[in-house]
## 1
Amino acid sequence: MQPVTHVSGKAYPWGQKNVDTDVIIPAHWLKTITREGLGKGAFETVRAVPGNIFDDPRYAGSPMLIAGDNFGCGSSREHAAWALADMGIRVVLAPSFSDIFSGNAFKNGIVAVVLPQDAIDRLIEVAQDQPITVDLETMTVTTPYQDRFGFELDAFRRQCLMEGLDEIGLTLARDTQISKYEAGVKEHRPWMSGDRAHASTSVESGGRT
Amino acid sequence: MANQPRTLYEKIWADHVVEQRDDGTCLIYIDRHLVHEVTSPQAFSGLRANGRAVRRPDLTLAVPDHNLPTTARRDAAGRPLPIADPESAAQLDALTRNTADFGIDYIDALAPAQGIVHVVGPEQGFTLPGTTLVCGDSHTSAHGALGALAFGIGTSEVEHVLATQTLLLGRSKTMEVRVDGTLGFGVSAKDVALAIIGKLGAAGGTGYVLEYTGSTIREMSIEGRLTIANMSIEAGARAGLVAPDETTFAYLKGRPMAPKGADWDEAVAYWRTLPSDPGAVYDAVVTIDAAEIAPLLTWGTSPEDVVPITGVVPDPDSFADPAKRDAARKSLAYMGLTAGTAMQDVGVDYVFIGSCTNSRIEDLRAAAKVADGRHVADGVTALVVPGSGLVKAQAEAEGLDHIFISAGFEWREPGCSMCLAMNPDKVPPGQRCASTSNRNFVGRQGPGARTHLVSPAMAAAAAVTGRLSDVRNLVTNS
């Protein structure tokens, strides 16, 4: 994962509420077996409308997107985060995010910054013609007009983002603890084990509906 | 503190903590992992790139559903038919190869038990109470109907679970959604789900795990509970739970992958300890009176846009929130609707009965009851897509296929079908569909497609009348 500590530049001043992941990347783009190249499908239905924000030359290439409540709701498709990353988005700012999307964004080095609605409204105003700056070190969003909005970020996520850490590698280092947990389950809830479920049956054997 | 009353969620959580970090987040063990063709290829590529194995293939089950066509899969001679779309074929090939390479059980496209991952899990007894269950699909919340803490994950998390059988998670808040009373005639679990989403809003459950309680839920079948838990995510909640009870145990007993013999008895004894303790405290409580729920449907492009079938298209100016007013105006333009129009005056072009929300045997029975002896209206294309091969076989054993086919419905092979426009089943631009699926988002059923979410009986009613219709006018209360 690409480390991210500081992003400064233009932002799409969108503000749209309830942006679902079908809007971020429609399902027909999901028939891919790689993570690359999804930027060209990002916001396809929005971009089909003339005069849309994503094709406005004033905001072309913005590394940030400002949205409304509940950004990334709906489908769990990580393709939404891949599409945003592919179009160069490193930060999304919104009053709230869907739980699944914010996890997916984080795993792809995209910072999901939660700010109150009035701060979002102000940033949308500023971003019409001015850059904004998001800093993970100080956990602030600032503007050339001396606006300064603090935000919170889970400490672990912040560290992973800033250092570009591989979360799977970190968890694999906890192998002893995971094995110990598994041994406990084998002793106390042996029926939970997949081995036994599989031993007596084949999934082909039918059953009831 | 040991005797402090706990919720079902807190009990499942506590039994799955591998370790707690200083910041309160926990490494949580995952008992069951369902895998499908669309959100897994990049996860397996990641494992290969890093030389990592699947930690517990025995806790993992794969089945294709999302982009599989629902037309015949074999020719008249019984030979498998190729998949026309090369991208879909490549994704299915990847799943076949990945499951073989990593030793994962695979119900392939031609297997009798193939179906939608959220139909197959419970049906096979892979889904069990008190387990943690994940899948790279947001409707994984469905499995909560059996008392499993089940939620959708992204592909990076799929890879994380494959490699480590764990996820690093923060604790969710809890919300009790209590539904009490008897459902009215013509009102189904789908209407309860829509009523809940209408009340909470599409983001009302964000950050929460819902627990559905109350007499209405208790009296409901597992199929009905699956419909409600399935749509938890449409209220923003990543998971929704129903405490396991006798209905749950009766449903699971004897299923192929459920515990057997002494294991079964031990499992049931454990499951009986799971329901929330009297006096357990939730972070939020919402109550709904079942008697007040009418057959519902959506009018807009968010699942929270709910109205009774007897209602009218709302006026955007009637919403207090300016952002909602703006969204409603855009929705009406997209949906081709005018404020004040009676919902029952709106004609439909397509009807879709299927999806992980409403493709189980009870759903098909409810739709067949309306379709029986009637015919799909002129100009309407109506699909019935069973949730699995086993549901299809059961429906055929009951003669439901004959009812549907003679009424002019198409009777298809199992899969996600017209729910999400990534297989050949799509609603064309500008066309209107009464759909038993879960999302009425812009473009969800195809670019420009207009979706009204309804129950299976209401979908069948729309099919035979050619417009959005009150099912209570078509069937008798017997």
## 2
Amino acid sequence: MIDYFTVFTTGGIVLWQKCNQPVSAAIVDSLVSDIFIEDRTRSGEQSSLTKDRYTVKWTTANDFGIIIVAVYQSLLQISFIDELLASVKKLFTTLYGDELTNKDPEKLPVCKFDDYFAVRYAELEILSAGRNVGEVINEGFGEKFASGDESDDVSEPPSRVTSSDSVGDPVKAEKATVKKPNLSKRGGRRGGRGGPTTRVGRESPFGSSGDEVPTKKSGKKLRKWDIDGSARDISDDEGPLDFSAGNTNGNVTANGEHSDNPLLEDENVENWGSKTKSGEFILKDLSSEINSILAAPDASTTADGTRGASAALASGFGFFRNIIGNKVLNEQDLDKALAAMKDHLMKKNVAPEVAQHLCDVVSKSLVGTKTGNWTSIEKTVRAAMEAALRRILTPSTSVDLLHEIQRVKSTNPPRPYVISVVGVNGVGKSTNLSKIAFWLLQNNMKLLIAACDTFRSGAVEQLRVHARNLKKLTEREGGEIELFEKGYGKDAANIARDAITYGREHGFDVVLIDTAGRRHNDTRLMSSLEKFAKYANPDKIVMVGEALVGTDSVQQARNFNAAFGPSRNLDFFLISKCDTVGDMIGSMVNMTYSTGIPVLFVGTGQMYTDLRTLSVPWAVNMLMA
Amino acid sequence: MSSPPETAKPDGLTTHEAISTSGYGLPVYILAVGLIIITAYFAYELFFRKSKGLAAGGPTFIIAGPSGSGKTSLFTLLRYGEKSTTLPSVEQNITTKFWLPNLLDTAKPFVLIDTPGHQKLRHGMFSALQIAQAARTIHGVLYVVDASAMSRPEQLREAAEYLYDILRITERVRGGTDVLVGANKSELFTAVPAKRLRTLLETELDKIRESRAKSVGKVSAGGDKHDSDDGDEDDGAVVGGSGWLGKRGEKGSFKLEDLETDVMVIDGSVDNGKIDPWIAWMEERAVN
């Protein structure tokens, strides 16, 4: 069962919604902002996202400015969800298209979509139930077995089904007989793809026998599971088959498992039945209307057809169209402009993967929309790309270090604020650490620098020099700085912990921890970071990345972000050596894209003062220049 | 094969031209004049009209505020007289046909812009405000906050930070742009009353002012060593840096009254339809 289904405008006005299970508004809100604002989907083309225990699927209609979202519990597998979304999109845009295209309507659009949705949902449910028996199970479960990943999920539900089977056996048998006429009436007509013959053959013995066990057994033999199952346990093999047998009763049974199963099912069936009996005329009318809408060719495809016919005229006119604007964009139009844009971004050191993603985002957001008056496609794409870059680079929460340090200072008992820097060898961890130190010293903080790079020779001495310099520089302003060192060869995590204890005892405001540089794909060195995060538990973990690095920065950021264990992430990036790359600052985009973590600081030179916060417009300008 | 006709064509054209310039002077002149007019129009469209944008359409009110404060609900309530269920906005809602109830026949309709509250999308609000300020069409900013969340420090902090960024822009014009802080959801038990909210915001803005002044400067074009003291050369798109808001003074001395911008904090509730004081505020600003 779908928990929550909604159609809303990009402006956030809900046009229609259906709530089967109460889903808290906070969850839906966070899902919407994760998907459409923060762009947390990284699984390629698939428009789905799983968070907590919910899975979200969605589709958009840019030309109408609407978004269609379905939320359901991740445990459930709703096979027809994509079809449902597509048909709702079609129905909705056909029924309310006129109201929706008007960007400034006189009234709030009222969309009475309940009946359409209910009918379409029931249709698809029955269709998919039929298909499940026919082919989907064979293929679907075979794949799952081959992958083996989801064997846990698959083997879990059957036990429940079998237990409920024994209880609700007669009820189900009844239901099967109740549903049968419906199937032949409604499903049979459109059953072409479902394989009607297999379904009928499957369904009829089921309904008449009323006994589940023999059908299950026979079903297993018929489907020849042993080919797949030969490598696996036979008992494992039976699990999913049980499940599928449960499915033959109609998807409702499988879906209802988690809630009060018999009630829901009864209601649904009754609904369906009563409608067919008392209000058959209305229902038929509605469903035929739905079918006629869905059968109607897509507006865009017809447009394509006419365009193809008058291709010569279009190409001649296209040039003017491009200048004048007001052109409805399709993918072909965008491809050329986007290819150029992708090349441009890659020249700026943006990784191909990231550039492709950005182009996809832009393409998705533009297909179906009209270009503005006097705006060419290139300009439109450019503007959209700027917006996409801005969106990636802008942090979703602001970081105010000084404020946080003050806040921690005022806790009782006071403790030092801990910042640690990590990164690959030679990116400038110590240098930028001392730049941060200089800034904090100027704000009259009492600092402790912990030398936790116990590996590279000279690392401790380097920090000692920095500490001495900084002390001299800021003596007059009242900053205090001290170096905590334990020599070489010791465990970094322990030193960090000792440093923090020392800092607490001696009333330091901030402890800055320098760590050894490590290659991000060296698992041995990276694994020690988890222990480090546990022992030192820094308030902020800063990853220093150099602007020079290019494509590898994607992987660097990912690996470092994952290195601190499941419950800890990086907090922000410091991109060093920005003065050496000119406008090729693509590494910034790579790192924020791959982790969703913002760039806070930018290193721009060799002096202690050469530390800046990132200005997003500056970065966007550089990238688009 | 195709070369002979190709060469013939230009010849034909030149003879045509020769005829027209000698015999039919008038049509050519008309054509030329028409062409000039058309190019002039194109040039006008290209260079002048585009710079203005939609936000500069007419007298404008902008709705802003943190995520989840009820901006879109307020928008539909003001525009359509009914509030709708909402989800987080991804794009702006814009209407050019917004009438204030008491000014139905006197004034022109207003432009009402509802901006997304998500941090990543605030840029759109800043630029809309700047465009409207530059065109002198802005009549006020409705800054909506969830008063029931203002007792939580992080939420208050976020609300104050966004307000700070807006004030940085409104302070740039003489006399400032009026800002109404609408303490929405006042019907809730935990709602902070307007008076208290005002002082809360003031103390928070004071802290932000302090820490912004001390923060590291923003990186600027060319990566040179100048701190961008006032974020103006950034096109002001993202404000921040270390510009000082209000009078120079001791820590804790920030007062909203000291600003050029007139900031008022008024209770209201979109849920209960209690937005009359806000409408009154807008009507006051509308006639000016």
## 3
Amino acid sequence: MGEAGAGKLAVTFGRFVRHKVGMSALCVLFVVILTAIFLPMLWPYDHAEITPDLSQSPSLAHPMGTDTLGRDLLALVLRGMQQSLLIAFSVTIIASLIGVVLGVVAGYFGSLVDATVMRAVDLVLTLPTLALAAFLGSLVAGRGVSWLGLAMVLGSLMWTSVARLVRGVVLSLRELAFVDAARVMGASSTRIMFRHLVPNVSDHIVVAGTLMFGVAILAESSLSFLGFGVQPPDTSLGLLVANAQSAVLTRPWLFYFPGLLIITIVLSVNYVGEGLREAFNPKSAPDNPLTTPRRTARSRRTGTREKQAQASQPAALLTVRDLSVRFGPQTAVKPINLEIKPGEVLALVGESGSGKSLTGLSVVGLLPTNAVGTGSVVFAGNELTDLSFEQWREYRGRRIAMILQDPSTTLNPVLTIATQFADSMRLTSAVNRTEARRRAAELMESVAIKDAQARLDQYPHQLSGGMRQRIAIALAMVHDPDLIIADEPTTALDVTVQAQVMATLAMARERTGAAMLFITHDLALVAGIADRVAVMYQGDIVEEQDVFSLFDNPRSEYTRKLLSLAPRISTDSSVERP
Amino acid sequence: MVQLIFRRLASAVLVLLLASIVIFTVISVSGDPLAELRDRQPPVPGSVIAAEEARLGLTDPLPVRYLSWLQGLVTGDFGPSTIATRDIGVELGSRVGVTLRLVILAIIIALVLSLLAGTVSALHQRRWPDLILTPSAFILLALPSFWLAVLLKQWGIAFNNATGYQTFYTVGAVSVPAPREFLPLVADIAGHMVLPTIVLALTHFATWSRYQRAAVAEGLAGDHVRFAVLKGLSRRRIVGSYVVRPALIPIVTIVALDLPVVFSGAVITETVFQWRGMGGFLLESIALRDTNAVLAWLLIAATAVVLFNLIADILYGLVDPRVRYAKS
């Protein structure tokens, strides 16, 4: 685990270094911290030292000017930075420690311990911390070591975010095998918590801690501003701003320098946090299906060429030529060709990662944003590539419908089933409510949903997975599409429900006579529904045959392997034979 | 739904009771309301201190003090102040409204703005409006609210001086003396609210718009949005009902959680603009070591937070059918 951890750390570090904004923010922060530590040693003026230069604007001798007492503002600001950074740093340590310990204990032991900790969190979250901190700050401020007291006050009020975060992750981890393994091997609870669980949350803690540092700077300076933080003759950035309140117009340097410093520090801390977050947990490019995907110039040329070729073979409903998908330098789908005739069912079979889903998404123009597609897709004689969102709407839902893999996420959780049907129906003509409900109920009955009227007013979460997928099928059928693309429609369902949904899909297709592109990893499902089968392997189509020839006489080595790995096919067919 | 509200109400009362115990203990144990009296030079006679202790009820053990304080609360009595003539309940009561109108208006403005900005930002990630909105939010997040408040106040003064006409009100929640008729009074109060509301709304706009952006971005990548696109729905319908509506659930949570922070912000904003609101009351009470007044303040703020959370829970039910049906 140690080696893997180090490797992961190196990768994370590399990602952070490449994060330009985060890196520059870190540099700024370093400069600020080093300045706060070392410059006061070299600077000729002390923060409490009174010079004869009263209220001077910035000059060579006093780069930030002087205040009304003649103190050098740079010296004051340096002292303020030291105080602010020291306090914020201690607050972060204290709050993170409390948060990690309480969070991991709550998550690990659960039940009563968890309930107690979470009530404490609720309680702290109910109180305006600044008010409580001001009261407690006013008590500790007078007594000697004010920075530590202040840090303890703020730390004891700011641990909740870390505690909640850690608890959440630990709750999800504690049932995992490696925790059980450690327990069986006789590790104590403390050891499991701090040697096995905490390291797994460390990335979250680092990010949360970084952001907390920024919040702590703001909290400390706010308190000092109100007069309940750092007390004169010592100073902090917040106190400097407070003293300069009435000087904004007359001696602006007194107000702007400390304020801009706070902003610089907090801004860099936040950007470092953002960089760390992305380094630990890189987000893929933002996915936005509402935009038109990028395509390369080459695709347009092939597209026009294809349009001419298309005229000579009008029989095909869908023709895919030289379609490829790349993610940067990596090719996910090699240039492939497919053809589907009206009313025909083509199964696209392959293991996960073979590029079959990407092929399906390319056909409907919904590749992920960071993918680049080329080639041409011709549907009923029309080139589909490079259509705008509005042009696509002529096809999507009306002539090409798609059914996605996971029925628990495809339906809108906050709309009733009836509304989701009505949304689809309104595409072609204005439909009134009663008419929409009547047709929706009809469609739902056609996919074997009983008690359709009552279901219409329900929300997706009230329905079972199989029922949701059948509703998704019914939704796809609203406009009697010419082509249905079904992307692993039964994979997320359990086996008994699978058969029902497959039967529903077959029935719905036969009723409308639509063609279908059926994408699956399961050869057993193919036998019952497909006319032809294309086998995909590592982004390429290795074999394409009609369904009987494929099962009887597979040509490619890979198909043979797939068939041998699916023993259910032989048993299935032997059951069907009599 | 009604059942849900009742259950939440019961748990809210419980949280408040718990909060009152903790606040009372922390404040009573840590603060000595007579510290100033004891430190006074020349020393105050012991009999005076003893009398003050008796008046404030400091001689009883803590649980007894808590119970008698709670008893007083039920009848609307917040306990004696360190200043004998000060009635905590009356004074706080007159100030709650001033603060609440600032807080509520700022929340509404910040919420509306962040819903708009966050959604627009997420729909155009790493493109034009987002390239301005995201860095602006980051800068606003780093801006100390007291600094922004002082800046706007002084700029307002400078603007007034330059034009020779009072465009911005920079001191107080209302003019002294206040206008007598209704409409001028409303206009006067609204005028005084402009700058403080901007400050308070901007600081929270920054946080909330970031959350809204994340929520919408996550929604956009979701299967149900892809399915809606595949159904051929219009952009407007997809954004409204399939992207933004589900994303309202996280933002309601965030706003409810942030309410105490809004109150903290209000304390600072009121201080800078010299409002006679709850913020000023708190700071005076702390300076006077008036523990009962601080207690009362914290309790009022906690009550407001709990009430707002209750509203958020009800909003949840309205936005999210999963909550509405699961709990009733």
